[in-house]
Amino acid sequence: MKTMMTRIHKTLCTVICICFFSSCIQEDLPLCPPDLRIQFTYDNKDDISLFQLNAVKQAVLFVFDEQDSLVDSRTMNLQYNKYIATGLHLDSAKYRFVVWAFNPDTLYSIDPAEPQPGLNRADFRFLINRPSGGVFLSDDADVLPPCLFGTDTATIQGIANEQIKIPLELNKNRLKITITGLQPTDEKYDFTIKDDKGKYTFDNGFERTNPFFYKKIAVPFTTVKSGGKDVSYLEALLDVLKLNEAGAMNLNITSGKGITIYDEDLIALIKNNIDAVDFKTTHYYDIVIDLSGEAVIVTVNGWTNQNETVELSD
Description:
The chain is mostly beta strands. The chain has 2 domains: 35-106 and 145-170, Immunoglobulin-like (Sandwich), CATH 2.60.40; 172-311, Immunoglobulin-like (Sandwich). Helix content is 13%, strand content 45%. The protein has 3 helices and 21 strands. The strands form 3 sheets. A 7-stranded mixed beta sheet has the order 3-2-5-9-10-1-4, with no helix packed on it. Strands 6, 7, 8, 12, 13, 16 and 17 form a 7-stranded mixed beta sheet that branches. Residues 10-31 and 307-314 have low confidence and may be disordered.
């Protein structure tokens, strides 16, 4: 009888402890053990809708000490603008937090795949695993899923329910490229953007790799009525990864016969038309390239640099 009562007592204690610690997470009780809570912030609602960021479900969090050595890491469910319990119990100190948000089983991965405490932050990379042939065809809606990066430093006190916020940056952009001023034919055109940023460091910088390409192929002319006249143009939507002032990305447009009608640096094209463009916060670019005259006129998001002259390709 005594043995049975002892077992009942132990069982009740176990149940009470489980309920208590579960309540800690749910109710923020003051006696809970230290458990860092993190809020991932992203405030651009247009981006969230355009790039379907709510479909990104996974965040991989890394914690580094002041010497940039890895202390701990966690894979978490991603939620925006809401505090999430991390399960991290950190000593009082200053830390750097790094997060990559992306869905598993996509083209993204982290190297090393199984991070061990003590590794330096400089040893880590976020990888773009390119498809066969190194070509991302924009006809495939899932060819370039969104990924986000965030980092911040914070001094942790080691007390219960500490909270920090980490702002996220989107590493994806959408380009709508329209070509006007050409005589319409039955010929179709290929739009190609060349990139070589296949590895990202843990400060969201990049390392150059073998080139890869974003392509929209066999684009036909579209003809519409405007002012009682037929107006024809070429138009392509292309998704690309991070745009960066230090990273050249070339835009090339060729006819079905292999004739180049436009070939320019995409980054320079954007910067020449938008003063003080912020690539961290601007992720949609409406680019119109008018080839009707002797010089090319480029408009980006409604802005045109009239002093910019680009000679037509031969």
